[in-house]
Amino acid sequence: MARHAEPRNPRRSALLKAGLGVTAAGAAMFGAAGAAQAAAPVPLPVDSLTRTDAAAAGEGALSGVTHGIGPLTRLQLDPLANTGVDPLDNGLGTQVADFKPVGTNLVTDHVTKGGAAADLPVVGPLSRQLLP
Description:
By secondary structure, the chain is mostly helical. The protein has helices at 10-38, 54-69, 105-112, 123-130; strands spanning 93-94, 102-103. Keywords: Signal.
């Protein structure tokens, strides 16, 4: 039976209205308690805020950022690497006369074989110097 053709049940609508009323009353009560608690004074002395060491704060922030971003350099760049459906795993190569063949796989193999940012030729050493 379709939802619009379902017979109306007055008991169900009364229960729904009562539940909504209880929810609204609870939200109002807890919201007022939260607002009253937020208005409480801060127990810190004001002079403790002036003695902030900016160099230590900057060093701590930089340390947090480097330790947060450092593991990202080890993540696999291409999620489809080493699969049969990787669109990046195609190369183009050429050989002129008896010279050594040249192809695009020299550039793309780092990524298509499951490499991370730390494994790339230029970005890898740079990321190891800047990040732990």
